[in-house]
Write a structure and sequence with these properties.
binds nicotinamide-adenine-dinucleotide; Dehydroquinate synthase-like, alpha domain; alpha/beta; 13 helices; binds zinc ion
Length: 363
């Protein structure tokens, strides 16, 4: 097991630990012992509960009693109704500012449970125990918490950091291959925007959930990369924009697929988005062709899609791109790679360039 730490920019006193690796769950009792909590909740969802609740209870031992609150699996948990049901559960069980909430599940569970804990009585302590690769390397780090509202993803949210994060890579072995790869996509992104060293490891060999040694090393690296951005700016001003690489196209592709009822996971949309944006960077002469080719090969090597499986209307795509949160004055602001490990922010591209890049991933 390795220990990373996250120091959010708003204050060094808010530094928290991230236990990473095979068996990291065993570190939980030590984290709990740091404060005297009167009550502890376990917020989880049915799939994950069946797989790991027993193991978690074993690790905590008989001295710790948990109130278990269950919410639906996946994206359907991120609603106002589920949020209310969690507030109700905290309230019924007399949770207060000396209580703790443990969140066992993927990124969706982490978002809804984190939002509930961050807002109940203006915020109670919570620990994220992410069980998907995407949640370990991305969603559980940085304290961003959101629910979906009015048909839009992550429309209402708060930023509040956890007390700690426990990312046990052994929990990833039960993930479906698609869900596992979806998380690898965010790791490739971290490499492209921040670290050629991280990228090189991913372009060399497909990550495999049974290779715990490689997984522990690379998940740790990826968490440290995300933490470096959170340390620079947690409120998503300038530097934090780099985390949106691949996501300007990616979010638009995700919405197009959703509207057409075509199953496309977030990480899959991001992998195609990374390629489309690398193409865009290449067309502008910002990124050398050989770097573009390495990005495409790396996505392929990790078994992620490089092309969309459907056709779409270009006006619809532009409509979606213009809704991106980074835009200003109705202009799409791109975060584009200029080499492996570095980006240029706030790039403005012509409609022709954007069309050409999107056509490239449409084969
Ligand atoms: N807060 C943030 O900064 C942030 C960042 C990125 C993504 N997100 C959010 O994260 C969510 C996506 O997260 P996700 O990809 O983890 O999806 P998810 O939470 O929906 O989980 C995917 C599926 O995997 C199952 N599952 C979870 N752990 C498992 C395990 N160990 N073994 C077998 N099955 C398991 C779940 O039941 C679910 O069906 C989105 O809602 C997204 O908005 C948040
Ligand atoms: Zn993402």
């Amino acid at each position: 097991m390795k220990l990373a730490s996250v120091t959010p920019a708003e204050g060094k006193d808010r530094t928290y630990s991230v236990a990473v690796g095979n068996g990291a769950l065993e570190y939980l009792p030590e984290l709990l012992a740091k404060k005297k909590y009167t009550k502890i909740a376990l917020v989880t969802e049915p799939t994950v509960r069946k797989l790991f609740a027993h193991e978690l209870a074993r690790v905590l031992g008989t001295g710790v009693s948990l109130e278990v609150f269950e919410v639906p699996s996946g994206e359907s948990a991120k609603t106002v109704e589920v949020l209310q049901s969690l507030w109700r559960s905290y309230s019924d069980m007399r949770f207060d500012r000396s209580s703790l909430s443990l969140h066992l599940g993927g990124g969706a569970l982490g978002d809804i449970a984190g939002f509930a804990a961050a807002t109940f009585q203006r915020g109670i302590d919570y620990i994220q125990i992410p069980t998907t690769l995407l949640a370990q390397v991305d969603a559980s780090i940085g304290g961003k918490l959101a629910i979906n509202f009015g048909g839009a993803k992550n429309q209402v949210g708060v930023v509040r950091q956890p007390q700690a994060v426990v990312a046990d890579t052994a929990l990833l072995s039960s993930l479906s291959l698609r869900d596992f790869r979806s998380g690898v996509s965010e790791m490739i992104k971290h490499g492209i925007i921040l670290s050629s060293h991280h990228f090189e490891a991913l372009e060399e060999k497909a990550l495999d959930s049974s290779d715990q040694e490689a997984l522990e090393r690379l998940v740790f690296e990826s968490i440290e990369l995300k933490a470096s951005v959170v340390a620079a700016d947690p409120e998503e001003a300038d530097l934090r924009k780099v985390l949106n690489a691949g996501h300007t196209f990616g979010h638009a592709f995700e919405s197009l697929a959703f509207d057409m009822n075509i199953p496309l996971l977030h990480g899959e949309a991001v992998s195609i988005g990374l390629i489309a944006e690398a193409k865009l960077a290449c067309l502008r002469g910002l990124l050398p062709v050989e770097c573009f080719e390495r990005i495409e090969k790396c996505v392929e090597r990790q078994g992620l899609p490089t092309r969309l499986s459907f056709e779409f209307d270009l006006d619809k795509l532009f409509d979606l791109l213009l809704r991106d949160k980074k835009n200003r004055n109705n202009q799409i602001r791109w975060v584009l790679p200029k080499k492996i490990g570095d980006t240029e922010r706030d790039v403005i591209c012509s409609r022709e360039e954007i069309e050409a890049a999107s056509r490239y991933v449409c084969k």
